[in-house]
Amino acid sequence: MPHADDSVLIETQHLTRTFGQGAQQVRAVDDVSLRLHRGEIASVVGESGSGKSTLARLMLRLLQPSAGRILFEGADVTRQSRLPELRRYWQRVQAVFQDPSASFNQFLTVRRLLERGLGLEGSRLDSKERDARVRWALERVALNPGEMLAKLSHEMSGGERQRVMIARALVVRPLLLLADEPTTMVDASSRASILNVLLDLRDEFGMAILFITHDVSLATYVSDTLFVMHDGRLVESGGVERITASPEHAYTRQLFADAFTMSERG
Ligand SMILES: Nc1ncnc2c1ncn2[C@@H]1O[C@H](COP(=O)(O)OP(=O)(O)OP(=O)(O)O)[C@@H](O)[C@H]1O
Asked: Is the pLDDT of residue 5 over 50?
């Protein structure tokens, strides 16, 4: 079964984003139409510069498209630009990025950081409910709240910071998590456990996850669905089994062949 639920959560229609003018113009994302369903785990794969991060930033509404639309739960969110609307969107769509230290406020304890992450919702919860939600999120990423709540950024390891940033994204119980290379900064065993934590969350509350990665083996291991990008275009999409068994596009075949050769070399 390609996804847990048939309803479409987010859809992009002919999404396009250019940078620059004239001969210098780059079509970072070029006419990309894709669908992600509730509880579905998908990966956008492609080499460096293929437009993956730009697509993620568009879907996160951090960047305005040059053309095309984004529908979330059937509603057009493309032109939403007022902060209250965007905040409501970010209650449902959260992200974790590559480098956790870049998004870490060094003066905030883990408790304050996660309480801030609660945003709008936090103001509706009393302090006991806020505390319970913060502890819940830390436990989800296998951190001990008792040990972590009072810590500052410099008192944690890289792997702990990464997990705290994931907890911060989870604290609002998003419907969609965009994860841009979330495990590049951590060692192999932390990496496997972070991935397993994320996969459990789909089972637990039906969160959909979109991984953004150039790591084809990671993408095939965790995903139901693959979106293959090349030069800003979505060249192939479909179920992992189908794509790994019979990739249709020459670029996809090349991507898999390269990944396979690299893993054989070890
Ligand atoms: N703000 C910007 N201004 C100008 N060009 C940009 C900007 N952001 C991205 N680009 C260009 O758009 C193209 C796609 O970049 P993008 O970062 O989306 O690729 P990517 O697949 O995420 O790469 P990586 O895996 O290296 O992060 C590249 O040619 C890049 O140089």
From this structure: no
Residue 110 to residue 126: CA distance in whole angstroms: 18
First to last CA, the chain: 32
Please name the residue whose Cα sits nearest to atom 2 of ligand 1: 19
| Ligand 1 near 19 CB (within 6 A) | yes
Atom of ligand 1 nearest to the CA of 46: 21
> How is the beta sheet containing 233-239 ordered, strand by strand?
93-96, 176-180, 208-213, 41-45, 225-230, 233-239
pLDDT tens digits, residue range 9-63? 999 999 999 999 998 999 999 999 999 999 999 999 998 899 999 999 999 999 9
Say if residues 219 and 211 touch (Cβ distance below 8 Å). Answer: yes
Does ligand 1 have an atom closer than 6 angstroms to the CB of 51? yes
CATH of domain 8-99+176-265: 3.40.50.300
Name the pTM for this structure. Answer: 0.89
Is any atom of ligand 1 closer than 6 Å to the C-beta of 239?
no
For the Cβ of 49 lying below 6 angstroms from any atom of ligand 1, the answer is: yes
Confidence of residue 2 (pLDDT cuts 50, 70, 90): very low
